[in-house]
Amino acid sequence: MGPPGDFTDFVLIKGMGFVRYGVVLTGDQREGADLAKEALSCLEGPKSGNADSFIGTTMTRLYVSSRRRRRPPSIPASDITAHGGDPEVWRQLKELPALPRAVIILRSYGGLSNEEIAKVLDLPLSTVRDQTVPFRQDDLLRTLDAAAATAQPADLLSDLARLRRRRGRRRLRSAAVAGLALVTIAGVAVLVRPTIAAPAAPLSATARPEPSTVGLARAAQEVWPHAVSMLPARSADGLVYQPAVAIDDRRVVLLAQRRLGYDDVRLDVYDAGTGRLTRFAKLPGDDETRRFATDGRFVVWSALSLREDDTLETRFWRVPVKGGRPRLVTKAAQGDALAPSQTHFQLGGGYLLWNTDKAIYRLPLSGRGRREKVREGLRLLEWPWAADLSGRTLTDLETGRSREIVTRERGLARCSPDWCVERNAISGLMTARRTDGSGSVELPGSTTEGPILNRFVVLRLRAGLKVIKDLRAGTLATFDPAEPALATVLGDRTAQGTLLAWSDSAGRDLWVLNLKAVR
Questions:
Q1: How many whole angstroms from its chain centre is CA 157?
Q2: CA–CA gap between residue 331 and residue 363 (Å, rounded)
Q3: What single string gives the DSSP state of each residue in 160-185?
Q4: How far is CA 449 from the centre of its chain?
Q5: Fewer Cβ atoms within 10 A, N terminus or C terminus of the chain?
Q6: Is the peptide bond before 134 cis (omega within 30 degrees of 0)?
Q7: Cα 317 to the chain's mean position, in Å?
Q8: Is 269 exposed, middle or buried (0-12, 13-18, 19+ CB in 10 A)?
Q9: Which residues, including other chains, have CB under 8 Å from residue 495's CB and lie 6 or more apart?
Q10: Whole-number pLDDT of residue 304
Q11: Rounded Cα distance, 290 and 315, in Å
């Protein structure tokens, strides 16, 4: 890393990604955060390799090390289910010892080959190959993503300062094993996941991943230049930017916060048409902002807040798209099974909408009125469309009309109003098909998100590389893996993922891909 300011920005921008990986790895909130802090405390001075890879590898080795005192996985299956995971897969993962669990997570969540995992863990290849479990890849990845979504915010910078004052870094650095300075990146760190790449011989700064991976797609800024904008990674007054939500094909809302803590947080708007950044809204209190949504009239976000009795509650705020003072829509205590989800909610028809296990509920955005049940036996897709719990029928909630979803594979992954993503149970190949059964499109890799905006799917390839497929136009795009400066990739804070953003390693510039602007 560079000077202290660069390290601070690095922790702010990427710290929660490491915490999420720690939670996935350990199955425990506190243990996962501690792993991230310990690995970050090992990072100092310039390195010849990639800092993401260094931290991800260090966390994995510290977790597997028999010298480390570990807590048993404590995240309940109900939390995994609430975020779309499979409780049975989670139960089996919780029962695994540290080594096979780490191998499985590196293989699925990290996207590494057995050879790369053997290098990360410094194990014989035969040992790595022996660590297998009978999980479907889609179910496993969905469950691990659900575990990552349960990660709670951590004050990494303050804790790191205390950790470094309390003891030196020599003990941790020995646990990380010599040679981590040579860690190199095999692909691109995408969305919230840190890169975990195998230690290898140093590569040149322009080294490219294998052509079979890179050749599948061109960089997003080449495929959709009108939809990619470059803007400063920090505001004029020094706040760090993170993508929040796309209002439309021109305007993007950015979350801006100080280098320390969650206070003094605001929203700014970037207009791609004018190239101007303007202040949008001041966020209230010390809440930790989680997710955003917009319906073109309002921007709504969820925030986690600590009440006076030291219990947590989720608050939902709204502000008009023209900007102004935020207004409280509703708040709900943690554990309320019928309350809006802090991570999965939508806007439509002037309402805040969300799913429970068996029904769709709504609440007026005005904040006046009680929550009410919209329909039982349905799951909201993209407003106004919902699917029945079997995934075989689509219903328009505004008109009441329904139509059948025509699929050919038994393992239906997910649908939007016009597209379904299917997985062949035998070959494992992914296919996108229109909901009427027409227009089959083969997908190179496994899907991780989508269909987004009833059009895009994010595909996971070997070594963690992700590409974006436009099902409507048939185009494929990725982030340029040949440029080391673009190794930091962030996801937006919306449940639907309408923005993708990445920054250079020095934290000077931020590139934003607005999927609403793709023509």
A1: 21
A2: 11
A3: HHHHHHHS-SHHHHHHT-TTGGGB--
A4: 10
A5: C
A6: no
A7: 22
A8: buried
A9: 291, 293, 343, 344, 345, 346
A10: 82
A11: 10
Contact present, 378 and 388 (Cβ < 8 Å): yes
CB 242 within 8 A of CB 254: yes
Strand residue runs (E) in 321-410: 327-333, 346-348, 351-355, 359-364, 372-376, 378-380, 385-388, 393-396, 402-404
Using CA atoms, how far apart are residues 60 and 330, in angstroms rounded to an integer? 40
Report the number of secondary-structure helices (H) and strands (E) in the chain. 13, 29
Pairing relationship of beta strands 446-452 and 441-443 according to DSSP bridges: unpaired
As a whole number of angstroms, the distance between CA 209 and CA 507 comes to 23
Q: What's residue 409's pLDDT? A: 59
Tell which residue, 479, 436, 471, has the closest CA to residue 453: 471
Quote the Cα angle for 293-244-193, to 5°.
Answer: 110
Which helix H or strand E contains 277, and what residues bound it? strand 276-282
Return the structure tokens found at 340.
């809006």
Got the DSSP string for 359-374?
EEEEEETTS-S--EEE
Judge contact between 361 and 372, C-beta under 8 A. Answer: yes
Residue 63 tokens read as: 């977790």
5: left (phi over 0), alpha (psi -120 to 50) or beta: alpha
Residues 381, 354: Cα–Cα separation, whole Å: 10
CA dist 265 to 67, 154, 186, 292, Å? 40, 16, 35, 15
Q: What is the pLDDT of residue 316?
A: 94
- Burial label for 253, CB within 10 Å (0-12, 13-18, 19+), is buried
Burial of 319 (0-12, 13-18, 19+ CB in 10 A): buried
| 72 close to 91: Cβ distance less than 8 angstroms | no
CA–CA dist 100, 17 (Å, integer): 22
Angstrom CA distances, 385 to 19, 420, 422, 447, stand at 34, 13, 19, 21
What residue type is assigned to position 359 of the chain? A
Place of tokens 């290098």: 119
The span from the CA of 402 to the CA of 395, in Å, is 4
pLDDT at residue 267 in the model: 94
Phi-psi sector, 454: left (phi>0), alpha (psi -120 to 50), beta: left
- Mark the ranges of the chain whose per-residue pLDDT is less than 50: 1-5, 45-49, 67, 167-215, 260-261, 480-493
Contact 291, 192 (CB under 8 A): no
Sequence-distant (6+) residues with CB within 8 A of 139 are 86, 89
Instruction: Report yes or no: 259 and 12 within 8 Å, Cβ to Cβ.
Output: yes
Closest CA to 97 of 125, 133, 122: 133
- Per the structure block, which two tokens stand in for 69? 């005192």
DSSP state of 518: -
